[in-house]
Specification:
The protein has 597 residues and is mainly α. It is built from 23 helices and 5 strands. It has helices at 23-45, 55-85, 90-118, 122-128, 138-149, 154-181, 197-202, 209-225, 227-248, 255-260, 265-277, 279-293, 316-330, 332-343, 380-398, 411-431, 436-471, 478-492, 504-507, 521-540, 544-553, 560-568, 575-595, and strands at residues 184-188, 191-195, 347-348, 360-364, 369-373. The strands form 2 sheets. Strands 3-5-4 form a 3-stranded mixed sheet, with helices on both faces. Strands 1-2 form a two-stranded antiparallel sheet. Strand 1 and strand 2 form a beta hairpin. Helix 13 (316-330) crosses helix 16 (411-431). The two termini are 43 Å apart. It binds zinc ion. Residues 388, 392, 415, 418 line the site of zinc ion.
């Protein structure tokens, strides 16, 4: 057995000793409760009558806000990590419940706070924003107040918050519980193994088509087996959300996700429009890949299949070195930061049963550290995922000296930082390929990423938008969900596949995330946005890292349209920017088609 330099499991003890039995964490939760109590007191007794005579009380409320949010962030991150590393950890589930209750309490306090903000006269408000200690928070405070104005009365919102613990987030938790019971049988060396969802998913990049097909059959069966439960879960979750929108008088399902992502509808529409206009080259790629795999047409389970016979696996150490070296070609900050993340055990990568599927990066705001979760089995796509999550961690790192209340960035710009990191590794590795065979494999990996973001995510977006529209009129059956998914996939993949994955709505956890609505288009936004940044980085060379970090630092306090204008000098509501990004992806496809002629 070889020992690796870098640990495959993460260090959580540095935050709280003892995992889900941590007494240190219990104490921390107790403190957090007290913090919330005094924050509540402070907000309740705060008078906005003569607000300009007493700006200091507002400043101290902002301090409490920062304090409560950071502590809650710390607790939430710890619990997510505990749950992800062992889905059978019942104690961790209890802790999640406790944290959810505290989060709801904070939300109730904030509802009260926000209500008071809306009661401040516009003129007073504008003067208030000029005061010391407040002026630098203008953007985030205006945003808060504006959002509050669009909501229901304080009491109604407080009730909604309280009800959301069991009536909304509870459904998200239900999904996770159901998924942990999904096991996919897989025969290896004459023995039937029960794979977790994450383990089974990795088999979709197996070079053997029979294995992929077999796993896919069992995969669909396993999801179908519990599809009624998943359908009920999804319907209730969506129903809760829609009822709230209706009560608030929001008639557009996309209102919340757009404002959360600080972007305009025109920007989103233009992005998808351009993508739809450029489906054809990607369909040609799918057809070429089918040819190379010796099949008439590609199926869902072939999408991640490796082409050619290069089937290199990277040990965790090799993957780490690979990433660190290539990051180093972009900039020293990124490389040094990453090396430290590996050295200090920030990453949980071990391939074992009982882990949550997928990957994520979560920040511990009080410690200025992040943790990365994934299941690493050595595939090139695992290396990409690792680079991706490290990109997220670097984003938090870049923001570490920014005012804590200006560090809240949305998913679309979060995915910019992560895909940017992924791209550095992908691009550099194509350039450094030792021969054409390897070059092709790596190039294909890049194209696969484009297919994922311009086709797969597009399907998710189409499905989710249509599902929510239908859900407005009542429950949507499991069969209808399958249909909607099939239609969305056909459209998004330009009818380029033989077999689709109708139960994708059940197998993809993103549809069940309650923290962020529409957990899809921000990925595509981030991808194309980062391509734009990447193009500039290539032009400007190593010194670009400083500018990149300056952009990251502004991500918590600007709309994306302003961010793009300031740092990239482009207008996101116009076609050009998106087209330039998509064309870069098409260029990879053309190169792939040329190499495989
Ligand atoms: Zn990400």
């Amino acid at each position: 057995m070889t020992t690796s330099t870098y640990s495959l499991t993460w260090d959580l003890d540095v935050f709280f000793q003892g995992g889900s039995n941590s007494t240190e964490f219990q104490t921390f939760l107790g403190e957090l409760k007290e913090t919330l109590k005094s924050f509540d007191q402070q907000v309740s007794t705060w008078s906005v009558e003569n607000i300009l005579d007493d700006t200091s009380s507002f400043v101290s409320i902002l301090e409490s806000l920062q304090n409560s949010t950071q502590k809650l962030g710390q607790a939430g991150a710890f619990v997510s990590c505990l749950q992800a590393q062992n889905t059978e950890d019942a104690k961790a589930n209890e802790l999640r419940g406790a944290v959810a209750t505290l989060r709801a309490q904070l939300n109730t306090i904030l509802t009260n706070f926000d209500d008071k903000l809306t009661n401040i006269k516009d003129e007073d408000w504008n003067n208030l924003l000029k005061a010391d200690g407040i002026n630098e928070l203008e953007f985030v405070l205006n945003e808060r107040r504006q959002k509050a104005k669009e909501k229901l009365s304080k009491d109604q919102e407080a009730l909604l918050n309280a009800l959301s613990v069991d009536g909304y987030h509870g459904w998200g938790e239900m999904y996770d519980s159901l998924v942990s019971k999904v096991k996919i049988p897989f025969e290896e060396n004459g023995e039937i193994k029960k794979l977790s969802v994450g383990q089974a998913h990795n088999k979709f990049s197996d070079p053997d088509r029979e294995i992929r097909k077999d796993v896919f059959r069992k995969w669909e069966e396993a999801w179908d087996d519990k599809a009624d439960l998943f359908a009920a879960t999804l319907n209730h979750l969506a129903g809760f959300r829609l009822t709230i929108y209706e009560q608030r008088g929001w008639d557009k399902v996309l209102k919340e996700p757009l404002s959360y992502n600080r972007m305009k509808k025109e920007t989103l529409d233009m992005m998808w429009q351009v993508i739809s206009d450029y489906k054809q080259p990607f369909v040609e790629y799918l057809n070429r890949k089918a040819e190379m795999l010796g099949v008439e047409k590609l199926s869902w389970y072939d999408l991640d299949a490796p082409v050619g016979d290069v089937n290199s696996l990277f040990s965790f150490d090799e993957g780490a070195e690979f990433i660190i070296n290539h990051f180093g070609e972009f900039g020293e900050n990124l490389a040094n930061f990453t090396k430290k993340a590996f050295e200090d055990s920030w990453i949980e990568a071990e391939d074992r049963a009982g882990k949550r599927p997928g990957g994520f990066c979560t920040g511990f705001p009080l410690s200025s550290q992040s943790r990365i979760f994934m299941t690493y089995s050595g595939t090139p796509s695992n290396v990409s995922t690792l680079a991706h999550e490290l990109g997220h961690a670097f984003h938090s790192y870049a923001l570490r000296d920014v005012h804590p209340l200006k560090r809240g960035y949305a998913m679309n710009v979060a995915e910019t930082a992560s895909t940017f990191a992924e791209m550095i590794v992908a691009d550099a590795s194509v350039k450094n390929a030792k021969d054409d065979k390897e070059r092709l494999t790596l190039l294909e990996d890049k194209v696969q990423r484009s297919v994922a973001l311009l086709m797969n995510i597009h399907a998710r977006f189409l499905f989710e938008t249509r599902f929510y529209e239908e859900r407005k009129n009542g429950l949507v059956s499991k069969n209808r969900l399958n249909e909607l998914m099939m239609e969305a996939q056909k459209e998004a993949y330009g009818n380029g596949l033989e077999e689709y994955h109708p139960l994708f709505w059940a197998s993809k956890l993103h549809f069940f995330i309650t923290g962020v609505p529409f957990y899809n288009f921000p990925y595509t936004f981030g991808y194309l946005f980062s391509l734009g940044i990447y193009a500039q980085a290539l032009k400007e060379g190593k010194g670009y890292e400083e500018k990149y970090m300056a952009l990251l630092r502004d991500t918590g306090s600007m709309n994306v349209e302003e961010l793009a204008l300031k740092h990239l000098n482009v207008d996101l509501t116009q076609r050009d920017f998106w087209e330039a990004g998509v064309k870069l992806c098409v260029k990879d496809v053309e190169e792939f088609l040329e190499m495989t002629k």
